[in-house]
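re: ur question from earlier - yeah i can do the single chain one, its not a big deal. heres the input i used so u can compare w yours
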Amino acid sequence: MRKRLSACVAAGLLVCFAVSIAQAAESQVKRPNILFIIVDDQSPFDLKVYNDKSELETPNIDRLAAEGMVLDGAYHMGSFSGAVCTPSRHMVMTGRTVWHLPIGPGQKTCPKNIEDNVMAAVFNKAGYDTMRTCKQGNSYSAANKKFTVVKDATKRGGTEESGSAWHGKQVLEYLDSREATKDEDPFLIYFGFSHPHDTRDGTPELLAKYGAVNHTDKNKLPAIHPKQPALPINYLAKHPFHHGHPGLRDEVSVSGVWENRDERTIRNELGREFACSENIDIQVGKVLAKLEAMGELENTYIVYTADHGMAIGRHGLQGKQNLYQHTWRVPFIVKGPGIKPGTRATGNIYLLDSLSTICDLAGVQIPETSEGVSFKPVLMGEEEIVRNTLFGVYNGGTKPGMRCVRQGDWKLIKYDVLDGKVRETQLFNLAENPNEYLNEHGKDDPKLKDLAEDPAYSEKLAEMEALLLSEMRRLDDPYRLWNQPDDGLPPVREAAKPKKNAKAKTGKPVK
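and the output i got, formated as tokens:
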């Protein structure tokens, strides 16, 4: 009896010992770090990973793409303000859709406790160290303050102290301090830049590389230089109709461009933009090298994106207040544990999905307030897209403004601006016309144009019109366009692509 009892005790001790070893091993597994890089005003088509004809050199961004995944369908949902970055950055921080933010027409629909559920607050509660550097202003200050370390300033100059190198320095110094104190906590670093937003004052050597000058004389055109980037493929000297925002700063007051859309001005401004973007790439490279030296690179999810795209001559526009692909889309590259190097996926993501996704990647509880969808299954190669339909808005000018919707290869853009003086509809097949050529581009191929007036596509046009109205209802858009019913119907609560047996970290089915 005693022998049997002793054997039982010994077996029990062995089980306890095995469990303790397993728990100890589990506790030693390092949680992944997050480095979220966001630049200010950058079209995906500026980058070689999206446009192989681009003359911009970004070896470190190219490296992230080679070692991670490029998403070809990443979008910001839009804006009700001329400062498009403001709602965009609110969406990044909260995971809320454009009409459900703590600002703007839909602020009453935002939960009162939203500040406790923004990016830094969520990761602070999960035991992460949080740090940010970014431009000052045009953002969500209440969310920004939640980061434990904040080093914000607007840096759009052409020197180490006045430009992008300043933001890089803040991250490097933060990593140095962690190394010095042997800080083992996982970290979330929000690594933001003030460029390539204007004023695009590049460093002298990079301006020279791209044949550009910091042009300041409104009464003269900048000099032509053979090193300047070529005009964008869908360049126009003038947009065919008014964009609907009279006096819009980005279209009339940007230093070096103003209202000029001639070849000399646009090529010089692209050179300035490329100089600023390459400088950003240099700073990203320094941070990657530091993480590698610390042994943290392979355990860090690195996101590279922008708050929205940019025109700079495309379609005869200059700013970010439009819904063409070059501006509605954003670059989005992710590298990290479990992501197969050198892969691409469509994604069909919004920037507002970022919060849910980085939580999912880090094993952090996704806040109930987030309306975003985790696209971790896309990053892990399990899914191609997370939703079928994409919606965009710009109405920071005259109301109700612009709307767009995309499903599959088809995209509809509508304009209802200037008190009804401009009411336009555009229909594109993006598989055949990815650059959204208009009649004004003068292409011989009849498919390389806006198809809205072509009777052969009347059924598709009607289908896309109905889809747009459905999305506007679903997302609580408070406006209606001239040919839509102001019917007061409740929103239709559907649109995300259902995923096979997928569940978010909340344990709820993904919507």
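Residues 15-27, 498-511 have pLDDT under 50 and may be disordered. not sure if urs matches, ping me
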